[in-house]
Specification:
Layout: H1 2-6, H2 9-33, H3 37-51, H4 53-56, H5 64-90, H6 93-115, H7 122-139, H8 156-180, H9 182-203, H10 206-215, H11 217-240, H12 243-249, H13 253-263, H14 271-289
Helix pairs in contact: 2-11, 2-13, 3-9, 3-10, 3-11, 5-8, 5-9, 6-7, 6-8, 6-13, 6-14, 7-14, 8-11, 9-11, 12-14
């Protein structure tokens, strides 16, 4: 059995992406539990960035066109983390996380239907319908009120925007790591960290921010290890496995986040939220695996 796994890259990729899915849900829950989420995220990125400094001396430099991929990825990742933090500050993890993770496949499916020459398969079209139903159910309101801030659950709008950035960086990084390998993994993580810290310093003075980072050092340390380690595993899984299948398996993090939110954060897991979570996961898997 061990030999079979060792000789099968797809099996390795599957195991790794499931570990990464747990890591992503876990670090999101840790940030949700922080009293100062931005400070905790700054600590997270300081830890992650410093951890990749030694690796920069062990990999070849990126070619010029590779830096264009890194620039695009960093811009999207900074936007993603800012939106994710805002969503977590506004809503429950078990609400905003499934919507954020489910919006990306939904948008990709709809864009394929309207703008790409390849029509959606029957399974993909069904996945879109199931995913839309799940997001509406999770938002807790009628579809016509989805964009009415006074009638939907808190954090729904920003969670949907977060989902757009997740889809964007997954596509950028998934393609780039196929071309540049481990060098891309090292450099994109190393470059991203200071840019996120700079984005926080634009809003808050250095001294108060660093004081807040010190108060949140435990969460910053844990999330730095879990988030950067988890995303490194994700990119390696993208490198050795099929991009579409691996991206689909990442959606299992929705289930892990819902479970963590209910068990650890004490968020109420109503029948509506449970059903909506299962619908979002099912729809996302149908869209990606049937492609």
């Amino acid at each position: 059995m061990t030999g079979l796994i060792a000789n099968d890259p797809d099996t390795w990729a599957t195991l790794l992406i499931l570990i990464a899915a747990v890591a992503h849900a876990t670090y999101s829950a840790l940030l949700k539990s922080a009293s100062d989420k931005v400070a905790a995220a700054v600590g997270m990125n300081i830890v992650g960035g410093v951890a990749f400094v030694p690796a920069a001396f062990l990999v070849p430099p990126m070619p010029l066109h590779g830096w264009l991929w890194i620039a695009a990825s960093v811009a999207v990742h900074v936007t993603y983390q800012r939106l994710a933090l805002y969503s977590l500050s506004r809503g429950q993890l078990s609400t905003v996380y499934p919507i954020a993770r489910g919006t990306g496949p939904l948008v990709i499916g709809l864009l394929s239907f309207f703008f790409l020459p390849e029509p959606l398969t029957l399974w993909q079209f069904g996945g879109v319908l199931v995913l839309v139903t799940g997001i509406f159910a999770m938002s807790g309101l009628h579809p016509r009120h989805l964009f009415h801030s006074g009638k939907r659950e808190a954090g729904v709008g920003s969670a949907m925007l977060t989902g757009l950035t997740i889809a964007s960086y997954s596509l950028i990084d998934g393609l780039a790591v196929k071309e540049f390998g481990f060098s891309y993994i090292v450099w994109v993580n190393l470059v991203f960290a200071p840019f996120f810290v700079a984005s926080a310093l634009i809003q808050r003075p250095v001294k108060p921010l660093m004081q807040a980072v010190r108060k949140e050092w435990k969460i910053g340390l844990l999330t730095g290890i879990v988030s950067y380690g988890g995303y490194t595993i994700t990119l390696y899984a993208f490198q050795i496995g099929g991009l579409g299948e691996i991206a689909a398996l990442r959606e299992t993090s929705i289930l892990f986040a819902a479970l963590i939110g209910a068990v650890w954060l004490g968020e109420p897991m109503t029948r509506r939220k449970t059903a909506a979570t299962l619908l979002i996961v099912s729809g996302a898997l149908a869209i990606k695996l049937a492609g």
